[in-house]
Amino acid sequence: xxxxxxxxxxxxxxxxxxxxxxxxxxxxxxxxxxxxxxxxxxxxxxxxxxxxxxxxxxxxxxxxxxxxxxxxxxxxxxxxxxxxxxxxxxxxxxxxxxxxxxxxxxxxxxxxxxxxxxxxxxxxxxxxxxxxxxxxxxxxxxxxxxxxxxxxxxxxxxxxxxxxxxxxxxxxxxxxxxxxxxxxxxxxxxxxxxxxxxxxxxxxxxxxxxxxxxxxxxxxxxxxxxxxxxxxxxxxxxxxxxxxxxxxxxxxxxxxxxxxxxxxxxxxxxxxxxxxxxxxxxxxxxxxxxxxxxxxxxxxxxxxxxxxxxxxxxxxxxxxxxxxxxxxxxxxxxxxxxxxxxxxxxxxxxxxxxxxxxxxxxxxxxxxxxxxxxxxxxxxxxxxxxxxxxxxxxxxxxxxxxxxx
Length: 405
Hints:
The protein is mainly β. It has one domain: Neuraminidase, CATH 2.120.10.30. The protein has one helix at residues 15-28; strands at 48-49, 54-60, 68-74, 83-85, 88-93, 112-118, 124-131, 138-140, 145-150, 157-161, 171-177, 194-200, 206-211, 221-227, 236-242, 249-252, 259-261, 267-272, 284-288, 293-299, 304-310, 315-320, 327-332, 343-348, 356-360, 365-368, 375-380, 385-391, 396-398. It has an eight-stranded mixed sheet, with no helix packed on it. The longest helix has 14 residues, at 15-28. The radius of gyration is 19 Å and the shape is globular.
């Protein structure tokens, strides 16, 4: 089962006005647990899977936990392993906290997010309260901890949680250096906004997206190098360096001819492309909802080797199947008003090794054609679906390297 969405060109005459609106909203911190301009769907319909695929609901999030939209898995590994046991799933839920870390629901005593741990069978394990908005999640298997950027529009920083440790010592804060909001930062690093989606490659290199910029011409994504705190109660430093600019020039991936001038303004997610992918193998990629573009970089730390692919609908999260078959775990976010619960699902079926799959702002899981940007639905009716984890049929997750990291 497949269909092609109507191709609507990105707005041009209204582009500057929409950009100003987006930047203003980000600056005042009125984004509730998601990206500016993201589609809002109640998600009360019953989701359905395409022929050959099976959709299973594993769990509904606990009472009082809402706006779950990020997920990662964590297992034990060492530097020699490329496939690691999947371990448990960790879900980040912002609970309606705004993207500047403030303004949660009035019935909450503090502006706190929640991280939940589940087994891959959907059994609840544990929960953590995290001050401010959880903007993204990623596992760092080498150190067996979860990384979370906080506050995607303003006051942004990193926090690490070690699930093996009980108590406040499990959480360690890292301040960005420089602060991307600071006008004293180098022009390439001064986005005026925060950070959101985060990935860790097989060499333990960390990349985080620049979100909600208040100016164009700065980096679209940061590379992060960590310096731990001096003591258990101290604050570490997350040193930022630029990759490629949000207004860089990229090759046209849809036509294979010519160049495209980027104007990224709503980067929602990032990912690493496995070498098994027929196109862009080993690249680092970000997706921008406002422009419906995937931007691939073959030499990410140098900010070079850029190709842009325009898709027929805005994407939320994107991941690749690293084996034939396997399982995708995904989050159905739900909504804050009216309140609908977030849920954890799994999808099994004939996933294609090396193929890209993504959740969309229309509440679907789709396969992405990396040649022309067209989308083929795998699951429909999820409302607002975000957060993807792929697990190989043998119960492992593949650690992926990044070209030029």
